[in-house]
Design goal:
Rossmann fold; alpha/beta; single chain; about 260 residues; about 30% helix
Protein backbone atom coordinates (compact mmCIF):
# COMPACT_ATOMS: atom_id res chain seq x y z
CA UNK A 1 0.00 0.00 0.00
CA UNK A 2 2.59 2.53 1.09
CA UNK A 3 4.78 2.13 -2.02
CA UNK A 4 1.91 3.51 -4.08
CA UNK A 5 1.81 6.73 -2.02
CA UNK A 6 5.43 7.11 -0.87
CA UNK A 7 5.25 10.87 -0.28
CA UNK A 8 2.44 10.34 2.26
CA UNK A 9 4.37 8.06 4.62
CA UNK A 10 4.71 10.86 7.24
CA UNK A 11 0.90 11.02 7.36
CA UNK A 12 0.99 7.91 9.56
CA UNK A 13 2.25 10.06 12.42
CA UNK A 14 -0.44 12.74 12.09
CA UNK A 15 -3.80 13.22 13.79
CA UNK A 16 -6.76 15.05 12.24
CA UNK A 17 -10.19 16.00 13.61
CA UNK A 18 -13.16 16.09 11.21
CA UNK A 19 -16.26 17.87 12.53
CA UNK A 20 -19.48 17.12 10.64
CA UNK A 21 -19.95 13.86 8.75
CA UNK A 22 -22.40 14.86 6.05
CA UNK A 23 -21.95 14.76 2.30
CA UNK A 24 -18.63 16.61 2.69
CA UNK A 25 -17.27 15.40 6.01
CA UNK A 26 -17.79 11.66 5.56
CA UNK A 27 -15.90 11.39 2.23
CA UNK A 28 -13.14 13.62 3.65
CA UNK A 29 -12.80 11.21 6.58
CA UNK A 30 -12.66 8.24 4.23
CA UNK A 31 -10.03 9.89 2.03
CA UNK A 32 -7.82 10.63 5.02
CA UNK A 33 -8.13 7.04 6.23
CA UNK A 34 -7.58 5.66 2.72
CA UNK A 35 -4.31 7.58 2.56
CA UNK A 36 -3.22 6.20 5.96
CA UNK A 37 -3.51 9.11 8.37
CA UNK A 38 -2.39 7.81 11.73
CA UNK A 39 -5.33 8.99 13.82
CA UNK A 40 -8.73 10.32 12.87
CA UNK A 41 -11.12 11.87 15.38
CA UNK A 42 -14.67 12.48 14.17
CA UNK A 43 -17.56 14.47 15.62
CA UNK A 44 -21.25 14.43 14.67
CA UNK A 45 -24.59 14.07 16.41
CA UNK A 46 -26.78 12.83 13.57
CA UNK A 47 -27.94 9.53 12.12
CA UNK A 48 -27.85 8.52 8.46
CA UNK A 49 -31.23 9.21 6.82
CA UNK A 50 -32.31 7.14 3.79
CA UNK A 51 -32.91 10.30 1.75
CA UNK A 52 -29.34 11.50 2.18
CA UNK A 53 -27.81 8.40 0.61
CA UNK A 54 -28.16 9.96 -2.87
CA UNK A 55 -25.05 11.97 -1.95
CA UNK A 56 -23.70 10.34 1.22
CA UNK A 57 -20.79 7.99 0.45
CA UNK A 58 -22.47 4.83 1.80
CA UNK A 59 -25.90 3.45 0.95
CA UNK A 60 -29.10 2.27 2.60
CA UNK A 61 -27.47 -0.26 4.94
CA UNK A 62 -26.16 2.71 6.92
CA UNK A 63 -29.62 4.27 7.40
CA UNK A 64 -30.76 4.58 11.00
CA UNK A 65 -27.27 4.34 12.46
CA UNK A 66 -25.24 7.20 13.85
CA UNK A 67 -22.84 8.70 11.33
CA UNK A 68 -20.00 8.44 13.83
CA UNK A 69 -20.64 4.69 14.28
CA UNK A 70 -20.96 4.03 10.54
CA UNK A 71 -17.81 5.93 9.62
CA UNK A 72 -15.76 4.34 12.39
CA UNK A 73 -16.99 0.84 11.50
CA UNK A 74 -16.22 1.32 7.81
CA UNK A 75 -12.72 2.60 8.53
CA UNK A 76 -12.03 -0.22 11.01
CA UNK A 77 -12.98 -2.80 8.40
CA UNK A 78 -11.42 -1.23 5.31
CA UNK A 79 -8.54 0.95 6.56
CA UNK A 80 -7.46 -0.57 9.92
CA UNK A 81 -4.11 1.25 9.86
CA UNK A 82 -5.99 4.41 10.91
CA UNK A 83 -6.95 4.68 14.58
CA UNK A 84 -10.30 6.37 15.14
CA UNK A 85 -12.05 8.14 17.96
CA UNK A 86 -15.66 9.27 17.82
CA UNK A 87 -17.67 11.88 19.69
CA UNK A 88 -21.46 12.06 19.48
CA UNK A 89 -21.95 15.76 20.05
CA UNK A 90 -24.07 18.56 18.60
CA UNK A 91 -22.11 21.78 18.89
CA UNK A 92 -24.28 24.59 20.27
CA UNK A 93 -26.99 22.30 21.61
CA UNK A 94 -28.63 23.08 24.95
CA UNK A 95 -27.60 20.55 27.60
CA UNK A 96 -27.60 20.13 31.35
CA UNK A 97 -24.96 18.32 33.37
CA UNK A 98 -21.75 16.74 32.22
CA UNK A 99 -18.70 18.54 30.88
CA UNK A 100 -19.07 21.92 29.27
CA UNK A 101 -18.93 22.05 25.50
CA UNK A 102 -15.64 23.92 25.57
CA UNK A 103 -14.06 21.40 27.95
CA UNK A 104 -15.25 18.44 25.88
CA UNK A 105 -13.97 19.85 22.60
CA UNK A 106 -10.68 21.07 24.05
CA UNK A 107 -10.02 17.54 25.28
CA UNK A 108 -11.04 15.98 21.98
CA UNK A 109 -8.80 18.19 19.82
CA UNK A 110 -5.82 18.12 22.15
CA UNK A 111 -2.64 17.08 20.36
CA UNK A 112 -4.04 17.00 16.81
CA UNK A 113 -2.31 18.47 13.76
CA UNK A 114 -5.40 19.84 11.99
CA UNK A 115 -9.11 20.51 12.47
CA UNK A 116 -11.37 20.12 9.41
CA UNK A 117 -14.78 21.75 9.87
CA UNK A 118 -17.32 20.33 7.43
CA UNK A 119 -20.42 21.53 9.30
CA UNK A 120 -21.12 24.37 6.83
CA UNK A 121 -22.61 26.30 9.76
CA UNK A 122 -21.27 29.83 10.24
CA UNK A 123 -21.90 29.83 13.99
CA UNK A 124 -20.07 26.53 14.42
CA UNK A 125 -17.22 27.69 12.20
CA UNK A 126 -16.84 30.86 14.26
CA UNK A 127 -16.66 28.89 17.51
CA UNK A 128 -14.39 26.10 16.26
CA UNK A 129 -12.03 28.46 14.42
CA UNK A 130 -11.60 30.48 17.62
CA UNK A 131 -10.89 27.25 19.50
CA UNK A 132 -8.33 26.22 16.88
CA UNK A 133 -6.67 29.63 17.08
CA UNK A 134 -6.49 29.48 20.87
CA UNK A 135 -4.98 25.97 20.74
CA UNK A 136 -2.59 26.91 17.87
CA UNK A 137 -4.05 24.24 15.56
CA UNK A 138 -4.37 24.80 11.79
CA UNK A 139 -8.02 24.93 10.73
CA UNK A 140 -9.84 24.24 7.45
CA UNK A 141 -13.52 25.01 6.81
CA UNK A 142 -15.34 23.67 3.78
CA UNK A 143 -18.84 24.06 2.36
CA UNK A 144 -20.88 23.97 -0.80
CA UNK A 145 -23.50 26.49 -1.92
CA UNK A 146 -27.26 25.98 -2.46
CA UNK A 147 -27.75 23.86 -5.54
CA UNK A 148 -24.10 22.77 -5.21
CA UNK A 149 -23.26 25.33 -7.90
CA UNK A 150 -19.93 25.84 -6.17
CA UNK A 151 -18.02 25.53 -2.96
CA UNK A 152 -15.28 27.03 -0.84
CA UNK A 153 -12.36 25.56 1.07
CA UNK A 154 -10.66 27.91 3.52
CA UNK A 155 -7.46 27.28 5.45
CA UNK A 156 -6.57 29.32 8.54
CA UNK A 157 -2.91 29.22 9.58
CA UNK A 158 -1.16 30.98 12.40
CA UNK A 159 1.65 33.37 11.63
CA UNK A 160 2.66 36.94 10.99
CA UNK A 161 0.12 38.67 8.77
CA UNK A 162 -2.07 35.58 8.38
CA UNK A 163 -5.81 36.17 8.43
CA UNK A 164 -8.34 34.48 10.70
CA UNK A 165 -11.78 33.04 9.96
CA UNK A 166 -13.38 36.46 10.47
CA UNK A 167 -10.90 37.95 7.97
CA UNK A 168 -12.22 35.38 5.49
CA UNK A 169 -15.81 36.50 6.13
CA UNK A 170 -14.87 40.18 5.70
CA UNK A 171 -13.09 39.33 2.43
CA UNK A 172 -16.10 37.41 1.12
CA UNK A 173 -18.45 40.24 2.08
CA UNK A 174 -16.46 43.00 0.36
CA UNK A 175 -15.56 40.95 -2.71
CA UNK A 176 -11.82 40.75 -2.02
CA UNK A 177 -12.47 37.03 -2.29
CA UNK A 178 -15.23 36.39 -4.84
CA UNK A 179 -17.78 33.95 -3.33
CA UNK A 180 -18.76 30.81 -5.23
CA UNK A 181 -21.97 30.81 -7.31
CA UNK A 182 -25.21 29.57 -5.78
CA UNK A 183 -28.76 28.72 -6.82
CA UNK A 184 -31.38 31.16 -5.52
CA UNK A 185 -33.90 28.42 -4.75
CA UNK A 186 -31.32 25.77 -3.90
CA UNK A 187 -32.78 24.78 -0.52
CA UNK A 188 -35.57 22.35 0.31
CA UNK A 189 -37.26 20.95 3.41
CA UNK A 190 -38.29 17.33 2.73
CA UNK A 191 -41.39 15.96 4.46
CA UNK A 192 -40.52 14.76 7.95
CA UNK A 193 -37.27 16.72 8.21
CA UNK A 194 -36.92 19.24 11.02
CA UNK A 195 -34.49 21.48 9.14
CA UNK A 196 -34.10 22.68 5.56
CA UNK A 197 -31.24 21.26 3.50
CA UNK A 198 -29.61 22.25 0.26
CA UNK A 199 -30.11 20.63 -3.11
CA UNK A 200 -27.10 19.39 -5.00
CA UNK A 201 -25.58 16.36 -6.67
CA UNK A 202 -23.11 14.05 -5.02
CA UNK A 203 -20.50 14.18 -7.78
CA UNK A 204 -20.33 17.98 -7.52
CA UNK A 205 -20.12 17.90 -3.73
CA UNK A 206 -17.51 15.16 -4.02
CA UNK A 207 -15.12 17.43 -5.88
CA UNK A 208 -15.24 19.92 -3.00
CA UNK A 209 -14.60 17.07 -0.54
CA UNK A 210 -11.61 15.85 -2.55
CA UNK A 211 -10.14 19.36 -2.74
CA UNK A 212 -10.55 19.65 1.02
CA UNK A 213 -8.84 16.31 1.66
CA UNK A 214 -6.00 17.30 -0.65
CA UNK A 215 -5.43 20.61 1.12
CA UNK A 216 -5.74 18.91 4.51
CA UNK A 217 -3.02 16.39 3.70
CA UNK A 218 -0.65 19.02 2.32
CA UNK A 219 -1.26 21.17 5.41
CA UNK A 220 -0.52 18.50 8.02
CA UNK A 221 2.59 17.46 6.09
CA UNK A 222 3.65 21.14 6.10
CA UNK A 223 4.16 21.21 2.34
CA UNK A 224 4.47 24.66 0.83
CA UNK A 225 1.14 25.67 -0.75
CA UNK A 226 0.92 29.22 -2.17
CA UNK A 227 -2.78 29.65 -1.38
CA UNK A 228 -5.18 29.39 1.56
CA UNK A 229 -8.60 29.72 -0.06
CA UNK A 230 -10.11 27.73 -2.93
CA UNK A 231 -13.31 28.97 -4.55
CA UNK A 232 -14.85 26.34 -6.80
CA UNK A 233 -17.51 26.89 -9.47
CA UNK A 234 -19.49 24.23 -11.34
CA UNK A 235 -22.10 26.54 -12.87
CA UNK A 236 -22.14 29.97 -14.45
CA UNK A 237 -23.28 32.36 -11.72
CA UNK A 238 -25.47 34.40 -14.10
CA UNK A 239 -27.17 31.70 -16.19
CA UNK A 240 -26.80 28.60 -14.04
CA UNK A 241 -25.49 26.75 -17.09
CA UNK A 242 -23.11 23.85 -16.60
CA UNK A 243 -19.44 24.72 -17.03
CA UNK A 244 -16.10 23.00 -16.72
CA UNK A 245 -15.28 23.13 -12.99
CA UNK A 246 -13.02 26.06 -12.22
CA UNK A 247 -10.88 26.83 -9.19
CA UNK A 248 -9.74 30.29 -8.11
CA UNK A 249 -7.25 30.53 -5.27
CA UNK A 250 -6.38 33.28 -2.81
CA UNK A 251 -3.99 33.86 0.06
CA UNK A 252 -5.69 34.90 3.28
CA UNK A 253 -4.21 38.01 4.82
CA UNK A 254 -5.44 40.01 7.77
CA UNK A 255 -8.39 42.17 6.81
CA UNK A 256 -8.24 45.81 7.96
CA UNK A 257 -11.82 45.64 9.31
CA UNK A 258 -11.15 42.57 11.44
CA UNK A 259 -10.33 42.93 15.12
CA UNK A 260 -7.43 40.48 14.74
CA UNK A 261 -5.55 43.20 12.83
CA UNK A 262 -5.23 45.14 16.08
CA UNK A 263 -3.64 42.23 17.96
Amino acid sequence: MSVRIPDLEPLRNKAVVVIGLGALGAPIAFELARHQVGELRIIDHDIVEPGTTVRWPLGLEAAGHSKVHVVRSFIAGQYPHTRTQGLLWRIGNIRSGGPSELDALETFVSGVDLIVDATAELGVQHFVSDLARAKAIPYICTSTTPGAWGGIVGRILLGQGKGCWKCLQHSLNDGTIVPPPYQDDGTVQPHGCADPTFTGRGFDIGQVALSTARLAVETVLEHEIPWDIEVIAFRDRETGNMMVPSWKTYTLERHPDCDCSAE
